[in-house]
Amino acid sequence: MTEQDRETIVYAGIWPGGDVRPERPLTGTEADILLAYLEWHRQTFELKCSDIDPSRLSERSVAPSTMSLHGLIRHLAAVERWWFRIQWAGQDVAMLYYSDDDPEQDFDDLSGDPREALAVWRAECDGSRRIVAEAPSLEATGTHAATGKPVSLRRVVVHMLAEYAQHNGHADLLREALDGRRGQ
């Protein structure tokens, strides 16, 4: 997705007037379909965080939950990095928004500008896309950093689909509580 495409999604005020996400394929290879759905989920999440005052992204709007859109942005940036860069590609990079002393800092520590967190998430998504594009197939394996066992790229993509599906549901509730917007 180009920066212009992102601006179209973020600034065009498409809610409730329309949906700029591409159609999800009805046919194609396994990789085509899985990756199109993952991209659709990423774009859905971006929609949930768009067209709202950035200061509101840190509001914990669904009591008693302590979740916020800002926390979800940080969490999903960390998950993109963990699964694609660290677990699958074996890159030696620092964890995002995590330490052994504070494993929940992605959700709990909302210091910093949410727009910066969104830029980090976008950069991690771009990095994940590059890793997938460079892989020979979904059957390709990396070494799961936590267990030392092989892990297929297919497994990572399916895990990410589940991760986004879960958190897009959270984002639906958080966004509706903030300003009444829902759906998509």
Biggest sheet details: 2 strands, antiparallel
Task: Give the tally of β-strands.
Answer: 2
Counted up, domains total: 1
Remind me, CATH topology? Four Helix Bundle (Hemerythrin (Met), subunit A)
| Beta-strand share of residues | under 5%
Uncertain spans: 4-15
Strand order of the largest sheet: 1-2
**What's the helix-strand series?**
HHHHHEEH
Give the proportion of residues in helices: 40-55%
Please provide a written account of the structure:
The structure is a single chain. With 184 residues, the chain is mainly α. The protein is built from six helices and two strands; from the N terminus they run αααααββα. The chain has a single domain, classed as dinb family like domain (Four Helix Bundle (Hemerythrin (Met), subunit A)). Helices cover 54% and strands 3% of the residues. The chain has a two-stranded antiparallel ribbon. A hairpin with a 6-residue loop joins strand 1 and strand 2. Helix 3 packs parallel to helix 5 and helix 3 packs antiparallel against helix 6. The radius of gyration is 16 Å and the shape is globular. About 7% of the residues have low confidence.
Describe the SSE topology.
Layout: H1 3-11, H2 30-48, H3 69-88, H4 105-108, H5 114-134, E1 141-143, E2 150-152, H6 153-179
Antiparallel strand pairs: 1-2
Helix pairs in contact: 2-6, 3-5, 3-6
Short description:
The chain has 184 residues and is mostly helical.
